[in-house]
């Protein structure tokens, strides 16, 4: 089985979906068979790959709520080695619907485990909250990657995520690990440098060496329905995500059968 990675942070605007999409695309560009699962009701991961929310007959909603096989919701993308399970607008009410179901926190895990052996990486994009959809993402995962913007409130938000991971580890997924913290939307100024230094001092080896800069081309790419490597491969944003993918592959290569 490949590595199942959940991208999670309850704080919005930190580059979570940008990281999920472009990390998955960069892994796929290196010919690692990758599945991106979008459990965010906004559906931005799908639209960033040119697949609009609700244009697919089957989505992660039918998988979670109607027990549809995950394989029936898989869509091909422009990248040969990247597949997508899209979100749906119906996910907006999924938190309430899931609350009434048995094993509500492990429905995504049950679905993902059926397909994970077919992929080297499964990347799960969660909503910016710590509700049942994110809980499903954490229970399904082997590890969590936390995107973190280098700003004043970053450490407070990180503490909340880490506390949630500890609770999930204790109650539902004892093998869950923090696979890494990735510094995103980085601008080279005194505050950003101070926050980055503090995070590296506190979390040491858990922080990826790769830093994702603020980059106009990264911001533009989703409006064209493309990951950054299909929009502007020479941009600093693209090169950073390609480097992050190499770092991820180096960390988990032995486990996932990768070089």
Features:
259 residues; alpha/beta; Rossmann fold; 8-stranded mixed beta sheet; 17% strand; globular; disordered C terminus; DNA_Partitioning_ATPase; Cobyrinic acid ac-diamide synthase; AAA_dom; P-loop_NTPase
Can you tell me about this structure?
A hairpin with a 5-residue loop joins strand 3 and strand 4 (82-85). Residues 254-259 have low confidence and may be disordered. 49% of the residues are buried. 43% of the residues lie in helices and 17% in strands. It has an eight-stranded mixed sheet with strand order 3-4-2-5-1-6-7-8, with helices on both faces. It has one domain (3-250): P-loop containing nucleotide triphosphate hydrolases (Rossmann fold, 3-Layer(aba) Sandwich), CATH 3.40.50.300. It is an alpha/beta fold and 259 residues long. The longest helix is centred in the last third of the chain and has 21 residues, at 236-256. It contains eleven helices and eight strands. Helix 1 packs across helix 11 (236-256) and helix 5 runs parallel beside helix 6 (132-140). This is Cobyrinic acid ac-diamide synthase. InterPro entries: AAA_dom, DNA_Partitioning_ATPase, P-loop_NTPase.
In short:
The protein is α/β, with parallel strands linked by helices.
Structural class by helix and strand composition: alpha/beta
* Main sheet attributes: strand count, strand direction, barrel closure: 8 strands, mixed
Indicate the mean pLDDT: 91
Shape: globular
User: Into how many domains do the coordinates divide?
Assistant: 1
Strand order of the largest sheet: 3-4-2-5-1-6-7-8
CATH superfamily: P-loop containing nucleotide triphosphate hydrolases
User: Helix-strand pattern, N to C?
Assistant: EHEHHEEHHEHEHEHEHHH
CATH topology, which one? Rossmann fold
CATH architecture: 3-Layer(aba) Sandwich
Total E-strand runs: 8
**Percentage of residues in DSSP E strands:** 15-25%
Tell me the radius of gyration.
17 Å
* CATH hierarchy class name: Alpha Beta
What is the straight-line distance between the termini?
15 Å
The multimeric state of the shown protein is single chain
Number of helices, counting only DSSP H or I runs of 4 residues or more: 11
Low-confidence stretches: 254-259
**Portion of residues within helices:** 40-55%
Organism: Anaeromyxobacter dehalogenans (strain ATCC BAA-258 / DSM 21875 / 2CP-1)
Protein name: Cobyrinic acid ac-diamide synthase
Domain AAA: 3-177
Pfam family, one: AAA_31
